[in-house]
Specification:
With about 325 residues, the protein is mainly α. The chain has a single domain, classed as Orthogonal Bundle (Farnesyl Diphosphate Synthase), CATH 1.10.600.10. The chain is built from 16 helices and two strands. Helix 15 packs antiparallel against helix 16. The N and C termini lie close together (about 10 Å).
Length: about 325
């Protein structure tokens, strides 16, 4: 995503104001979080959708910046909690908070970020609809995490089950950030639905690309180790395709003890098989379909630069993959966040 989105500097100030003062060790942890943020995709989407729905009206206000800050705080909290659950060692190329300061402190900091996010959303003059939307979204994030935990080491996961996890864990939140932009601009229900549909398809494509990179990506660009899905017993779209088309690999993992990750040699074999079988190409084709559906959802909205910016965000998701993925390197410039 290129170019500066108007209002991001104000969002950054709102985040810092919400988190400080933070004395002692808490201040040290908060400082680390602020230094190690990603591209702030969700606030960018919210601001851009608000501008599009406002059709040129001056909608820059503290309520808007607080809402954009809140979605970034919610996102950051979800990553902290995910890392604790997954016992992840790296996030954005740095040691995770729970390894540096312990899982107890990390969990509480994640809870603090959620509390500060909803404090921002609950300020006088704020939108009750927006508050309810994001509260429901956080509930969906939790529901998705629980469902994903229940499906760990279940190698016969179906595509339908995969997309259910995809929806609750990723797509729903991105969809809600886009819908929030419409709500803040006072847009019609139809306009808000179009923005939400765009965000939903974008989120689905985003998660599929992330799953592809776990098999084919560069860890220094992905910001975390590759191969983590297999290690954690997560059956994502590339592996689902492999198991559906090459049953012998499914038979191998069925022989594993319950709730056990494949040994290193089998993991290596599965990763190579996913590449050679065309399973990454299959997943990439699915991501591109969702990408196209995201762009199509924008077609009935005003033809403004913000609409083009949203289309570009979707189109950039897969442009780093040249040709097919089987045996081909991934552009090392790709970075998701």
């Amino acid at each position: 995503m290129h170019g500066e989105v108007p209002g991001l500097s104000e969002v950054d100030r709102a985040i810092r104001k919400a988190l400080y003062p933070a004395p002692g060790r808490l201040g040290e942890i908060i400082g680390r979080i602020l230094e190690n943020r990603g591209k702030m995709l969700r606030p960018r989407l919210l601001l851009t959708c608000t501008a599009l729905a406002g059709c040129g009206k001056n909608l820059r206000s503290n309520l808007l910046f607080d809402a954009a800050a809140a979605v970034e705080l919610i996102h950051t909290a979800s990553l902290i909690h995910d890392d604790i659950i997954d016992e992840a060692a790296r996030r954005r190329n740095q040691e995770t908070l729970h390894l540096r300061w312990g899982p107890g402190r990390a969990a509480l900091v994640g809870d603090l970020l959620l509390a500060r996010a909803f404090a921002l959303l609950s300020r006088p003059g704020g939108s009750r609809k927006l508050l309810h939307l994001l509260a429901r979204t956080v509930a969906h994030l939790c529901r998705g995490e629980i469902y994903q935990m229940e499906q760990r080491y279940r190698w016969e996961l179906t595509e339908k089950q995969y997309y259910r996890i995809n929806y609750y864990k990723t797509a729903c939140f991105i969809a809600s950030c886009c819908e929030a932009g419409g709500l803040l601009a006072g847009a019609s229900a139809a306009f808000c639905r179009a923005l939400r549909n765009y965000g939903l398809k974008l989120g689905q494509a985003f998660q599929i690309v992330d799953d592809i990179l776990d098999y084919a990506g560069y860890p220094e660009r992905l910001g975390k180790p590759v191969g983590n899905d297999l290690e954690q017993g997560r059956t994502t779209l590339p592996l689902i395709h492999l198991f559906e088309t090459q049953k012998q690999y499914l038979k191998l993992v069925r022989m594993l003890p319950a709730n056990t990750a494949p040994p290193r040699e089998l993991q290596k074999m599965l990763r190579e098989a996913v590449k050679k079988n065309g399973s990454l190409d299959y997943a990439l084709a699915a991501a591109r379909r969702k990408q196209a559906e995201a762009v199509a959802a924008l077609q009935h909205l005003p033809e403004r630069e913000e609409r083009q910016a949203l289309a570009q965000i979707a189109e950039e998701l897969t442009r780093h993959f040249a040709g097919t993925l089987g045996g081909q390197p991934v552009d090392p410039e790709i970075k998701l966040s």
